[in-house]
Design a protein that fits this description.
Keywords: Nucleotidyltransferase, RNA-binding, rRNA processing, Transferase, tRNA processing, tRNA-binding. By secondary structure, the protein is α+β, with helices and mostly antiparallel strands. The chain has a single domain, classed as Ribosomal Protein S5, domain 2 (2-Layer Sandwich), CATH 3.30.230.70. Helices cover 28% and strands 29% of the residues. The strands form two sheets. A six-stranded mixed β-sheet has the order 4-5-3-2-1-10. A four-stranded antiparallel β-sheet has the order 7-6-8-9, with helices on both faces. Helix 1 packs across helix 2. It is globular and about 55 Å long. The two termini are 21 Å apart.
Length: 247
């Protein structure tokens, strides 16, 4: 039995709450169990200088963790002068995941920055951030269409992410911190609504994992992201005033 009493293929309780930030063009508060991430999408009328004249837009992401998101206070990275390697890796992953399902020319030469701020961390912050960031980006594009800034929806598909791992020899879905900290294998999967793989990150913390174990994790991840995409669709089917979709 897992510490959370969940089945091996069971997600934590997931919620997606839209329109939580008053000034952002798109926003979503996403929770995976006790992990909570605030995602906001901000429109900028100019894209990066290196895309000037290309007719394409750009989506970038920034990720941060509040000092008391964890059991002990962590120092704000701004005080150290630069983001850590982990932070840079995660925000690049979020940006790649969103761009993979976006028609960038349909944005025009504009930029959107998606900020993912971890309010509380209990494992899976990057996967929660990607899942919530897609909702925030969707609502940013809807805001743009409503004002005739763009004529079509640049999003080509959904994208969501989930963690999997091998804990005590058993493949399990959506690790919380108690499992993540002791897993023999830890993996993150970013998968589109149509089932395409955007990114797979897998690490053996103890002994190497086998091809069969990798395929078992992939099966778990596909089932998990299918449920997350269904939850994204449920959230979008409700007016923002209703705000929350819950698994």
């Amino acid at each position: 039995m897992r510490p959370s009493k969940r089945a091996n293929d069971e997600l934590r309780t997931v919620t997606l709450e839209r329109a939580v930030a008053r000034y952002a063009e798109g926003s979503c508060l996403v929770t995976f169990g006790e992990t909570k991430v605030l995602c906001t999408a901000s429109l900028e009328e100019r894209g990066p200088p290196w895309l000037r004249g290309s007719g394409k837009g750009w989506i970038t992401a920034e990720y941060s963790m509040l000092p008391r998101a964890t059991h002990e206070r962590t120092r704000r990275e701004v005080n150290s002068g630069k983001p850590s390697g982990r932070t840079q890796e995660i925000q690049r992953l979020i940006g790649r995941s969103l761009r993979a399902v976006t028609n960038l020319p349909a944005m025009g030469e504009r930029g959107i920055t998606v900020d993912c701020d971890v309010i509380q961390a209990d494992g899976g912050t990057r996967t929660a951030a990607i899942t919530g960031a897609w909702v925030a980006l969707h609502d940013c594009f809807a805001w743009m269409r409503a004002r005739s800034i763009i004529s079509i929806d640049p999003l080509r598909d959904h994208v969501a992410a989930v963690s999997c791992g091998i804990v005590k020899g058993v493949p399990v879905l959506d690790l919380d911190y108690a499992e993540d900290s002791g897993a023999e294998t830890d993996a993150n999967f970013v998968i589109t609504g149509s089932g395409g793989l955007v990114e797979v990150q897998g690490t053996a913390e103890g002994k190497p994992f086998s091809e069969d174990e990798l395929l078992a994790l992939l099966r778990l991840a596909k089932g998990g992201t299918e449920r997350l995409v269904a939850l994204q669709k449920q959230a979008l089917a409700q007016p923002p005033s209703d705000k929350k979709a819950t698994s």
